[in-house]
Amino acid sequence: MATRTRIYHIALVGIIALILGTLLACTVKWPRAPHARDPLAPQRVAIRPPYQNILDLPQLRTAPIYELREEVDIAHRLITGTAHITVTNRIPRAWHTVALRLFPNLRHYGGVMRIRSLMGNGQQLPFRYSDTRTSVVADLPMLIESGGTLHLDVLYTVQYPRWEPNGYWLFGEHQGIINLPLAYPVLAVPREDGTWKLDDGLPMGDTLVAESSFFHAWVTVPSTMTLISSAVISAATPYTQSAQTTYELVSGPAREFTIVLGDRYRQEERRIQGVAIRVYYLPGDEETARAALTYASAAWQVYSHRFGIYPYIKMDVVETMLINRGMEYPLMSQLGVELFRDERRKLEFLTVHEVGHQWWYNQVGNDQINEPWLDEGLTEYSTYFYYQDIYGQDVADAVLHNRWEIPVRYIRDRGLDAPIGLPESEYTPQNYETIVYGKGALFFHTLRKRLGDDVFLDVLRTYLNTYRYRIATGRDLQHVIEHVSGDNVDDLFRTWVYGP
Question: Model's pTM, two decimal places?
Answer without folding.
Answer: 0.91
